[in-house]
Amino acid sequence: RGRFDMLSPIRGRARALARPDDVAAVESGLLGWAQDNAPDHDNYGAADAEWLSDLPAMRHAVLTACARPETRAEGYSVANRTFSSLYTSMRTREAVEILEGALASGDGPPAIGAQVARRAGIAASEMRGTYEGLWLLDRADEHASSAPRPEEQLAKTASIRAEMHLDAGDLDRAEQEARRALDLDPDGSISRQATRTLADVYTSQGRFAEATQAATDAMPARTSGDERWIDLSARTLLARIALEQGRIAEAVAGTRAVVLDARELAEARVGLLAETLLRGLDPTWKPTEVVRETLPWAVRLPVLAQDGRDLLVRGESRQAAGLAADVVALADSARLGRDGVEARLLLGRALVEIGDLDQATTTYLTAL
């Protein structure tokens, strides 16, 4: 079935007996397995991919291949193809280990190298803090200068910078970078993602007509297997706009459809974010059980904030205030500005409920 396993004592004995030609044969076979079992496309990967059960073997295959100049290009290619599955299954730490390990081995092919550096930046930002991956985006731009189509790679990197600024709450810079991405490669593969980012910016700013148009523009290729999360995310934004405008039934129906489609496609990350929105809209919904501590910051904080809202609805105001204060601290440390505002609004509500109006006023003013 394309999988393998070996007990530790057997592995240890095999290593003790191995000759140099055995080691070379094993490494060659392992790289062949990785090439066969990694997703075929660098933008296509699901959270239920079978190779995730053999993640340590995949990591070893990639890093061993990247360590040698003669196989580095193949190692970079496999590392790049694994990212989508790692990202949607929210295995940020493993993604950082594989992608940063590949980059540390030396430069790969320029186009793939730029993408690996970008994706390492995404994973590092999610694990260590919003702007902790910026230096990797700079490295992606360095790779881009040698790529066949530099403007395409620069556009893709600008789109990721826009997402970082969006998470940080710097909406003006997010819009600037998204528009720069579109200007650099207006007909390229990044246009849907950059347009989705603009829709997210506009939604946060309350520019709902522009947000609706941008979200709609980001969805034409919804039947494609490429970048499926963009369609799901854009539809979630449309549901959030419906909620903001008081169209509750539409918001519930739209969000529920996204959750069900995400489950079918095993797009776990986007599905969890949609489900978190749905929890606040539909009290009858039975959410998927997740271990909060294992989630990347950008997903964990919205989930924890909704946990706090649930506590508030049940009348457990002090517990809600405590959890909201924790989310505020976490959001500030990870530089997730929008989550910090949401958490402060929740904390303010909880403080009002328990009668601490002075603290509530301070909290609301900070949010403002």
Structural features, described:
74% of the residues lie in helices and 0% in strands. By secondary structure, it is mainly α. It starts with 7 loop residues before the first helix and ends with a helix.
Quickly describe the structure:
Helices cover 74% and strands 0% of the residues. It is built from 18 helices and no strands. The mean pLDDT is 91.
Biggest β-sheet, characterized?
none
Helical stretch tally: 18
**Could you estimate the helical fraction of the residues in percent?**
over 70%
- End-to-end span in angstroms? 55 Å
Q: Point out poorly predicted stretches.
A: none
Question: What Rg, in angstroms, do the CA atoms define?
Answer: 22 Å
Class computed from helices, strands and strand pairing: mainly alpha
- What is the percentage of strand-forming residues? under 5%
Order of helices and strands: HHHHHHHHHHHHHHHHHH
- Rounded average pLDDT: 91
Number of strands: 0
State the shape: globular
